[in-house]
Amino acid sequence: MASSDAKPKSVSRAKKWSEEIENLYRFQQAGYRDETEYKQVKQVSTVDRWPETGYVKKLQRRDNTFYYYNKQRECNDKEVHKVKIYAY
């Protein structure tokens, strides 16, 4: 796993939807690169997830407001290309 001050080495765009892309979409909607950055900024060890699907359930933005997400897919096919995939 990345260290606490890790910076991404490269970035690419998503080409097609997957469960990983769905979760990245939710983190990026809330203003974070990915789960690593969220845990680093918010100083949490776990992220709330839906038990049925494993998708992110709730995220706290940097301004301390919350985003709540559905159990089903929220990243439409037309939004997939906007998701950035960071490599550490």
TrEMBL record:
<protein>
    <submittedName>
        <fullName>Meiosis expressed gene 1 protein homolog</fullName>
    </submittedName>
</protein>
<dbReference type="InterPro" id="IPR020186">
    <property type="entry name" value="Meiosis-expressed_gene_1"/>
</dbReference>
<comment type="similarity">
    <text>Belongs to the MEIG1 family.</text>
</comment>
<dbReference type="GO" id="GO:0005634">
    <property type="term" value="C:nucleus"/>
</dbReference>
<comment type="function">
    <text>Essential for spermiogenesis.</text>
</comment>
<dbReference type="Pfam" id="PF15163">
    <property type="entry name" value="Meiosis_expr"/>
</dbReference>
